[in-house]
Amino acid sequence: MNTPQRKIIHVDMDAFYASVEQRDNPSLRGQPVVVAWKGSRSVVCAASYEARTFGVRSAMPALRAEKLCPQAVFVPPDFSRYKAVSRQVRSIFERYTHLIEPLSLDEAYLDVTTPLRDLGSATAIAQEIRSAIFEQTQLTASAGIAPNKFLAKIASDWNKPNGQFVVKPTMVDAFLAPLAVGKLPGVGKVMEAKLAELGIHTCNDLRSFGAEPLQLRFGRWGRRLHELAFGIDQREVQSVRATLQISSEDTFPVDLPLDALEPHIRRLAAATWQGYGKEWQRHPGRIARTVVLKLKTADFRSLTRSLTGAEPPTSEQALADIACALRARVDLPVQTRYRLVGVGLSGFAEADGSPAQEDLFLSATPA
């Protein structure tokens, strides 16, 4: 019996948080809206398309956004409203499939290989979903349609905003060959620069370089890049996903030196341990083996230090002790000041020691 070709839709709301604000406050329409608390410690949660024309982007320091766009209208985020709209959108998805994998409040994968309502094609389903979203919420969404998750996510960005793009199975090779490697999920500026040093700029270059040389240089990730260059992605849409990392973080009112962070680390370790307990209730038997300490310096440089010990942490105090000890692995000058600290647990495995299934591209990207 032949397995049917997967039909995956990636739906991504357009400038979600900012669009909700513009919808609910007509005076903001057409204005460069930045969703963020204004101030030296804040970062941008979302930017309207009017603000993006000035170079304002999500996760950017609010002060930089203000310099790039002095006329920007800053609006504090209201996550209760965003979550309410997200639930409305989810209810629309559920008309077409039970296989829904949310990535954040504003985007999700849908497997419509065997849809609840057959409209003849995944393209038609995506169009109807987008129309229903607009009719019900007065917000626009973009969609990518493809035979797998990786391609669908790339395609959803192709005709933004308020558009959709389909990558048919017969189009995959031609579509990917000229694609810049920076478009591949997981390839950031640093990795893009490393690939450029090897003369690799496009997916076609990745194909030509070969899987074995890429693996020698970058480990399993190198081989994975080679697969992506050919459009290979076997990941299923997972309607229920276990957490890959549990963490808590905090931005300080005043930058602090490394040796002043212990009470904050212990406070955040307590919050993380509480979250770990809730995850255990949902997925008994999944054990976190890696402790992660996250730091961000006053000049917004981010760094992490982690430890996977022979035995996983078994108490809040053990987690806090390990996280505090990880400060010794920070080799920045002693006068360095830090604006943020976080404590996390990752490296989940089943109780029998087998690794928990992970999603390569899981992220929490601001809207």
TrEMBL record:
Poorly processive, error-prone DNA polymerase involved in untargeted mutagenesis. Copies undamaged DNA at stalled replication forks, which arise in vivo from mismatched or misaligned primer ends. These misaligned primers can be extended by PolIV. Exhibits no 3'-5' exonuclease (proofreading) activity. May be involved in translesional synthesis, in conjunction with the beta clamp from PolIII. NCBIfam families: PRK02406.1. PROSITE patterns: UMUC. Monomer. Its EC number is 2.7.7.7. This is DNA polymerase IV. Keywords: Cytoplasm, DNA damage, DNA repair, DNA replication, DNA-binding, DNA-directed DNA polymerase, Magnesium, Metal-binding, Mutator protein, Nucleotidyltransferase, Transferase. It comes from the Bacteria. It is found in: Cytoplasm. Its cofactor is Mg(2+). The record marks Y17 as: Substrate discrimination. Mg(2+) binds at D12, D106. The keyword Signal does not apply. Belongs to the DNA polymerase type-Y family. Residues 8-188 form the UmuC domain. One of its GO terms (molecular function) is DNA-directed DNA polymerase activity. The keyword Metal-binding applies.
